[in-house]
Design goal:
- The protein has a 5-stranded mixed sheet, with no helix packed on it. The chain has a 4-stranded antiparallel sheet with strand order 3-2-5-6, with no helix packed on it. Strands 8-10-14-13 form a 4-stranded antiparallel sheet, with no helix packed on it.
- The protein is elongated and about 75 Å long.
- It is built from 2 helices and 16 strands.
- It is mainly β and 254 residues long.
- It has 2 domains: 20-140, Immunoglobulin-like, CATH 2.60.40; 143-253, Immunoglobulin-like (Sandwich), CATH 2.60.40.
- The chain starts with a helix and ends with a strand.
Length: 254
Amino acid sequence: MKALILIATFLFSGLMVSATETQIMIRAKARDAKFIGSSLGGAHIIIRNKVNGQILSEGNTTGSTGNTDLIMKTTKTRETSITDSQTAGFLASIDISEPTFVSIEVVSPFNNKQAQVAVSTEFWLIPGKHILGDGIILEIPGFIIDILKPRTHQYIALNTIKGEPFLFQANIVMMCGCVIDKGGVWNSDEIEVKGILKKDGKYLKDVNLSLISTNLFEGNDLLNNPGNYELTVYAYHEKSGNTGVDKVNYVIYE
């Protein structure tokens, strides 16, 4: 019996020793922009064993959005790196004893629920064969849009706005938090921003929004009737295919 116990102990310890630490660098990069890091609250990373669904590692990307010139302006070849030591990422350390098929899911931006996008990929992870440097980069499409005016479920007296331009206002940034400005790297002149207005559930009109300062878009129109209103603001960039939407409901009463 003692011999059997010793053999079992030896075999078990051998299995434990055979598990090898394997590191993977995971990064989330906004489409047509930079990396998603600490300044935006990070992108949430989940690594799972595809066979049984077990979560092998989980966490948020941290670090900077990266070097703008390197990412957006430098001519790239096959071996060109677009990250440096400060660029945001999530370094996972996983112990595996055999090649393991894994899935990686990225949810971003983690702290902006209305703009969240989930993207994923799958690949084989080999024991002790680290994936570092630029690592695995997943692209996050879209814009983050926050409607500032009117506020959610705001009640507005008709006599305070009748005959006066009613202001619509939205803050819009890239999915990495990078700024949108006139003539900038992310040029507001190339982005269509529009509000779709409904009254009592029926389409009413479109409202154009234009940049008035960094990231801030405004438009206005006359609203002369009481009702339940819904404003949908969208941004669209034809060159990259980036889109984004936010919605707000408000009430105009007599």
